[in-house]
Amino acid sequence: MSVLFSRDLKESLGDEQLVTARALRACLAYPSTRIDTALGQVEYATRGEGPVVLLGHGGPGGYDQALVLGELFRINGYRIVAPSRPGYLGTPLHVGKTAEEQGDFMAVLLEALHIPDAIVVGASGGGPASYQLAQRHPGKVTALVVIDGISMRYAKGDDINAIEEWMYLSRSGQWLLGFFFKHFPASVVKSLLQTESTLAKHEIGTRVKEILADENKFAVFDAIFQTMSSRFEERKSGAENDIALGAAIDRLPLDAIRCPTLIIHGDADNDVPPRDAEYAHGAIADAQLLWIDKASHIGFWTAPDAYKAQRYALDWLRSR
Length: 320
Prior knowledge:
With about 325 residues, the protein is an alpha/beta fold.
């Protein structure tokens, strides 16, 4: 097992394609479809050509967020299968409430699509489903990449006060956030970094300027925000279940995972703390762990070293 640090990686993407604002707008406009599975109807979208990447999105989210998070892989030669996890948009919650059930949900989706196995990429709240797919259905996962993913008890739901609950888990609160994001983007980026990172005050100010100055990084930030806030009533049950799912976890069982595994985590993540990456790295045989230096919860896409980390992830997958 090895631990890698993004500051030691190559400086930027080489021949790989960057995720652009235009590409992300196409993700947000892309339609979904539904398919009957052994556990019930599942909403999903699929884009691209090449080896299949099954994407487990965060929360709040949906298939649209899965497309956004998977766009880096699509434009670099992969086919993205992007489901809405249970409780989000068109996938009913009864399809899978627990981490184990959501792993099974991803397995039956692959079966319904006649896909024998896939690369699995899980981000944030999509970590438990992705880990449990690899744990419970090892033959279906050829490689596993988890980005700032939950692997231990998620206690942040305990710390949400009434104002934050209204802001993040109500339609009116999400509308207000959307209004501020459209008209005062710097203030929203700053506020989210204050919540999602352990960066010092002066570091947050510098980071806000960097993100606003980089059209592609800001576009990712904007697109992820849209997939959290738009149609929020159709995402709310999934978001509430994610909090309950996370609170019910002690430590996910990971001992049966044998596929090549890359764990990527921001060392300044204040949403899913670094201990989740450390635990998964120690529990999965031969897993690799990539820390992104001074990165928030979405640092893989927006940190100063984001392009280095993206290049490493693509190179790692190609070497499997």
